[in-house]
Batch of 3 targets.
Target 1
Amino acid sequence: MHARFFCPDLPAEGHEFSLPPEVAHHADRVLRLRAGERVTLFDGAGREAEATLLQMGRDPRARIDAIVLCDREAPLSITLVQALATGDKMDWIVQKAVEMGVTAVQPVAAERSVLRLDGARAEKRVEHWQQVAVAACEQSGRNRVLQVAPIRSLPHWLAEATQGDRWVLSPEGGERLSRIPAPTAPVALMVGPEGGWSERELAAAKVAGCRPVALGPRILRTETAGIAAMGAMLALWGDY
């Protein structure tokens, strides 16, 4: 496979253009690519292009050789509603969610979330997670970059009107995924923090119309639960 890079302003076939600074740095300084090598570019909105590097160094340039129409998106529309997790767990969760084909990631602050972010720190962290999503798209072959939404408190997110179904992972009292009919609308999948959802949060989720679902009798870690659920959903109703 050719190296893949995210270029949001992808020109038309046959055009020559200067590579965006981030792409130029990665191609030149990290991967040590040279003029004449082929690369794959995508605009994050579905378009992909085969291109040739014309020159590197001070003014890295490329030529678009062919626009390729291909769709690698999952047939299920899933938004991962992930309670904030500590350390680098959120990076890992966002990365794997992209690989699994999730449509969007909505971070939420839960009662038992150890990580607390607000103001500029929250904005900076969301920007970082968005870049993690871009890098994961480059690696996984996706041509659409999912959006990492601004952090919301769980009550605020529950109060917002959303399209489709809302499912909350609940080890106790949830329906097994294998017993649920295939969803016909987008699904927002809610995953709790390290300490799990509180009883008050689970009650609020049910009042808001969220469907409790379970992944079997074992308790999964927050960084495992969402990925496992998405894998099961794609195996049951998706493209696996």
Target 2
Amino acid sequence: MNSTFLCGRFELGFERPLIMGIVNITPDSFSDGSHHFSTNAAIDHALGLVEQGADILDIGGESTRPGSEPVSIQEELNRVIPVIEGLRNCGVPLSIDTFKPEVMKAALQSGVDLINDIYALRQPGALEVVSEFPHCGICIMHMHGEPKTMQVNPPDYGNNITREVAAFLRDRMKIMLQSGIDPRRIMIDPGFGFGKTAAQNFQLLREMADLNELKAPILVGVSRKTMIGAVTHKPVNDRLSGSIAAALAGVARGAVVVRVHDVAQTHDALAVWNAVEFGVNE
């Protein structure tokens, strides 16, 4: 893996795992939908996450939970662009969680540093947009199907879920590199919960170290997800402990970014993990 990740205005190192704080500007996200739906509320929430230790802010204007309904390009822009403009000088990289090329371009023009795309640049025009902005980071994710129906009937991967995910991400990376994208701009996400059963998610997490062969930074997003509820039997807003355990399992297997709702608690858990692994600076 490259020693630095090119992320718009920033160059990120991974001497320690980084925390990506989730900023949902949606009425229907699975965990915190409508909590920060206004521009001012979203900006205040995001600034609070930075104070708690977020290293990156991931801004999203369209829910991609299972069964979610799509929103129009204009509606998504109306939600995210004022928030991006309000956070542009907050001191940490800004990520836009979108798969729409039009939203990607407008967000990059407004100051976003990272494109976080659940479709891995498969939408027509997406690859061309990120090629126009040679410094932005790009996170590509594995997903089977589309958000509205992906969990209706996930495919039977047998025991090959990790191999399938690795092959998909390898192919997408190859296409990006052939298009002239600097490998230092590419991050990968296994896509926990996106067209996968709970058993498949946990197998993928267990075997996630195999993805290190792709030589790209790995982002893990497991916060409050159904896979956590499947083993803890807790409702979505009572999954903090399970989410932290899963995030640490991912970090232990090579993840360098964890995407979370609960930044302060995850920050403390990672501080202890780092002290165990690397010692304490006194």
Target 3
Amino acid sequence: MTSERFYDALRQSSTLQATLNRYLYVLMGQLGQLVACTRFHVVEARLARWLLMTQDRAHSDHFHVTHEFLAFMLGVRRVGVTKAAGVLQQHKLIHYSRGNITVLDRAGLLAAACGCYGAAEALYDQMIPSPGLMAAPANRHG
């Protein structure tokens, strides 16, 4: 779709406008949450949060991710990832070897994660209901 056609559709559809406004609200909220998390939470808690989010999306206890990628995602040097992963592994929450991560104790990882885990998802669920919820008669006018 060209930008001109998209702009025309946007002008003609209040539903599309409202949906995009909600999406932008969620995106800005997630960005603010990420900035605050990076500034105020220790690397171990941020790594635990990131691993939980990855596990949620991968639908698996096992995934491959490099120190370099984790350092980029967490905004730290690789040595910071090494130390943080070592702490989580020492507490038997994860097993980490050559980029292969296994979540051993999800409940423990939840306890180790900062309070930011789930905040982005909660905001998304609040502002952008799933299609199944939108189709439900009780939610059509609410």
